[in-house]
Amino acid sequence: MGFSFFLPLFLFRGKNYSCNICGFHAREFLSRGHNYPIIQELSIIGAGKRKVDCPKCGSSDRDRLMFEYFKSNFTAEQLVGKKMLHVAPEKALSRKLASEFQLDIVKIDLRTQGYLFAYDKSVIHGNVMNLPFESNFFDFIICNHVLEHVENVATALSEIHRTLKSGGTTITQVPMSVKIPQTIEGQKHWEAKDRIKHLGQFDHLRLFGADFKEHLKRANLLPSYWTMNNLQLKEKLKLGSDEFVIASKKH
Ligand SMILES: [Zn+2]
């Protein structure tokens, strides 16, 4: 992501796919992810090696799915001027949501080593387990692929619940397998290779299972799963994976 200036874009130009974030028409997208055995074995959603990154804006299949979710589920009036918190913000998606829907977006990240390069100064330092915001503040909170990294999921979700307005929506994508009923918590002493073997990534603390909904419900967030019905568009945007949007309402 973010290396697009170095790519000779004409090599990727074509008619096979298009990017709903930047409008690029592509013959092929760029590769991302890894093919670790556990990912295939458990059909982990939101992981695995696949050619889905836009060579122009760096958006992933998840970013493009997210944009379609907002387009399909909200009217312009429901979004304009609304306050959104974007945790560990995907750059191209954040920019697009702000420009397309005029959302007022606050971006935070822990800014841990290894992820530093991805962010500019508009991303403030903050921890999702102790959000530096007052209660009932945001209409939307996007927190994608973060909860598998945090020390305590319940604490992070209670902070999301606290800072979300009543009736507000949070989107919390995580790598998960519906083949396992219970979330697998990593052992403290596990090294990177153990985490890759059992959880699918070197720095993950857990692998969510079919019980992910229960985590949300326990935090008084009401989850629903959304997926795209327009299969032609899905193919065009190269949303080949089985990922669905996990959107929860605070009630
Ligand atoms: Zn793009």
Please tag this protein with its features.
251 residues, alpha/beta, Rossmann fold, seven-stranded mixed sheet, globular, binds zinc ion
Describe what this molecule looks like in 3D.
The chain is α/β, with parallel strands linked by helices and 251 residues long. The chain is 26% helix and 24% strand. The chain contains 8 helices and 13 strands. Strands 7-6-5-8-9-13-12 form a 7-stranded mixed sheet. A two-stranded antiparallel ribbon has the order 1-2. Helix 4 (91-101) links the parallel strand 5 and strand 6. The longest helix has 13 residues, at 61-73. Zinc ion (ZN) binds next to loops. Zinc ion binds at residues 19, 21-22, 24, 54, 56-57, 59.
Calculate the mean pLDDT score and round it.
Answer: 93
User: For this structure, what is the CATH homologous superfamily?
Assistant: Vaccinia Virus protein VP39
Poorly predicted spans: none
* Rg over C-alpha atoms, rounded to the nearest angstrom: 18 Å
The CA-CA distance between the termini, in Å, is: 36 Å
Strand order of the largest sheet: 7-6-5-8-9-13-12
- Strand coverage percent: 15-25%
CATH architecture: 3-Layer(aba) Sandwich
How many strands, which pairing sense, and closed or not: the largest β-sheet?
7 strands, mixed
Question: What is the domain total for the residues?
Answer: 1
How does the overall form come out from the CA principal axes?
globular
Number of helices: 8
CATH topology: Rossmann fold
SSE-based structural type: alpha/beta
Helix content: 25-40%
CATH class: Alpha Beta
